[in-house]
Design a protein that fits this description.
Layout: H1 2-13, H2 16-42, H3 60-78, H4 86-109, H5 115-122, E1 136-137, E2 140-141, H6 162-182, H7 185-214, H8 223-246, H9 254-274, H10 280-285, H11 293-320, H12 332-365, H13 367-373, H14 378-412, E3 421-424, E4 428-431, H15 433-462, H16 465-477, H17 479-489, H18 513-518, H19 536-560
Antiparallel strand pairs: 1-2, 3-4
């Protein structure tokens, strides 16, 4: 067996064509981290110059938009505030809107544009929420418990005192400029925490009122309101804890902490609130598809559970100052993980080519007869070819892993290269970065072994290189789409969980609770966590069984195949 394995390995690595393919594969694996580095260098947070300046007789809309954008750029650039900084992310939009309001008012007060034209173009700048609604800022709850979009009164020129609004815009700009340039992180975090505390008090009052109306389940019509009030209290408590951690941030921690708090948490909070269970009467009156009320409740509970896991993970990240890789600028970890996924995909493609060449090539070259002359059983021949292919795949993977980590750390440094990844299993778990990176390579490659086994089986059955390569290439090309469809249908067709379809890329199932909210349009439903029962371990077992089945079929066919002279 050892001699056969050695001979089959030589057949893989000796041919010049295979050497070229392997060299190309290694070069392609090295491309993603280099490309990511080039892109990051072109996005340093600098400010480009404008190539177009509107004439004096240009439309008011063009001038207002241009001058507001120009002044915003100049202000942040002159104060040396990078576009990647948390201050830019937090205040850029507000500053630009106030500048637009200022220029819109000046268009009217200077007589260049009539009031009605400005009101029709920029009336939204002067709108204020109705008193019956609670305003939400940046997706975070403030000054009230209800996370609803405010409704606005329709604005006309008669409703606007442009001279007064101009003075107000200038005063607001002065205050905002002070906050941007002088307000410390601790002051900002404290102000947000104070606002969240007000929200918490209001939410508790509303929860008490909703609880009284609900009456411990006696009046089910108030179930939705009661659940939302409880969620509002929970959200406000998360906000207070998050801003408390942000207040203690060091200089190099400010940007990623802000991104997690005001970039990720709003999505989590929105899901937590939107997935509150309504009463059965409301469920019937709304369009929830063909789900039963029990299914709807179960899905809502799963979704809320996932939202809480994500919130707990973010809070753990903030408290322990362990950044989530997707929220760090030029993150070495993100580059490594993405590049390793690409490396796995390249390895699978290369192995499909080598597999069909190794198996079907024996027939086209006529060497299969010479192989069978030897006093070895056909089973040993097939097994030796399988082992040789696995050896090749493992070697490519090891080279790819070392190459990706080496290039990424050389280009981006080791700042977060070895910072643990946060996962969740009955609590937050710190997974070593090297272990997580290895899994990001191994899992999709393990899924790819099933596709490679299809190539192995097809080459054995058809004896044709081109024909044998078609099906595995098609499966590989559309594996992501097929997996997405299978996962979306798995609740309705439970038998799918016992097929390979939902597990065609096991790397997609290795996600933290936070990843589920960031990448949920790819796989996970935004309003129902129907994939909570998908087990990564079950996926590994099922893929292993399907892969074994392909090799058993290949072995059975090969043992009965008549070799033509």
């Amino acid at each position: 067996m050892l001699g056969l394995w050695k001979n089959e390995s030589i057949k893989i690595f000796r041919p010049v064509a295979n050497k070229i393919i392997l060299i190309i594969a290694v070069l392609l694996i090295a491309v993603p981290p280099c490309f990511t580095y080039i892109i990051s260098r072109s996005e340093k947070g600098g400010y480009d110059e404008y190539y177009y300046v509107p004439d004096d007789d240009a439309d008011a809309e063009v001038k207002v938009y241009f001058y507001a954008e120009r002044d915003t750029r100049d202000f942040f650039r002159d104060n040396e505030i990078s576009q990647n900084s948390w201050r830019y992310s937090r205040y850029c939009g507000s500053y630009r809107d106030l500048k637009m309001k200022q220029y819109a008012c000046e268009e009217v007060t200077s007589g260049r544009t009539d009031a009605q034209t400005v009101a029709s173009l920029f009336g939204w700048l002067f709108e204020t929420p109705s008193e019956t609604d609670v305003y939400t800022e940046d997706g975070m709850l403030h000054d009230g418990p209800a996370a609803v979009s405010p409704s606005y009164e329709e604005i006309t020129a008669d409703d606007i005192d442009f001279a007064k609004e101009l003075e107000k815009a200038k005063a607001d700009l002065a205050d905002l400029e002070y906050n941007i340039t002088e307000q410390s992180v601790k002051e900002y975090a404290q102000s947000r925490a104070d606002s969240a505390k007000k929200t918490l008090e209001a939410a508790k009052l509303q929860r008490a009122e909703a609880s009284a109306n609900y009456g411990d389940g006696k009046n089910s019509a108030y179930l939705g309101a009661f659940n939302r009030a409880k969620a509002d209290v929970e959200i406000a408590e998360y906000q207070i804890s998050a801003y408390k951690a942000f207040a203690e941030a060091d200089k190099d921690e400010e940007d990623w902490m802000f991104s997690e708090i005001e970039g990720c948490l709003p999505m989590v909070f929105s899901t937590l609130r939107e997935s509150c269970v309504e009463d059965e009467k409301t469920f019937i009156s709304e369009d929830y598809g063909d789900r039963t009320y029990e299914q709807y409740k179960r899905e809502c509970e799963k979704t809320q559970s996932r939202a809480r896991e994500a919130a707990i993970t973010v809070q753990y990240s903030l408290d322990n100052k362990i950044p989530l890789s997707d929220y760090v600028q030029n993150s070495t970890k993100s580059t490594v993980y993405g590049s390793l996924g690409t490396a796995a995909a390249i390895t699978v493609i290369v192995m499909i080519i080598i597999t069909v060449t190794l198996i079907a090539g024996e027939y086209s070259n006529g060497t299969i007869r010479l192989l069978l002359i030897r006093p070895k059983t056909r089973s040993k021949i097939i097994i030796s070819k399988f082992l040789a292919l696995m050896t090749c795949a493992i070697l490519i993977s090891i080279v790819g892993f070392v190459l990706v980590y080496g290039i990424s750390t050389a280009l981006f440094g080791v700042s977060d290269a070895f910072v643990p990844e946060l996962m969740y299993s009955s609590g937050v778990i710190e997974v070593p970065a090297l272990v997580y990176g290895a899994l990001k390579l191994i899992l999709p490659l393990f899924s790819g072994m099933f596709i490679i086994s299809i190539a192995f089986m097809m080459a054995t059955v058809t004896e044709k290189i081109a024909v044998a390569a078609v099906l595995p290439f098609i499966v590989d090309m559309f594996s992501g789409v097929v997996q997405t469809i299978a996962l979306s249908l798995i609740e309705k067709f439970s038998f799918l969980r016992f097929t390979a379809l939902p597990y065609l890329n096991l790397g997609n199932l290795l996600v933290s609770p936070v990843d589920r909210f960031i990448y949920r349009p790819m796989i996970f439903s935004p309003d129902a966590a129907v994939y909570s029962d998908i087990s990564l371990l079950a996926g590994v077992i099922i893929i292993a069984l399907h892969t074994l089945a392909m090799y058993i079929i290949a072995l059975a066919v090969f043992r009965k195949k008549e070799i033509k002279s």
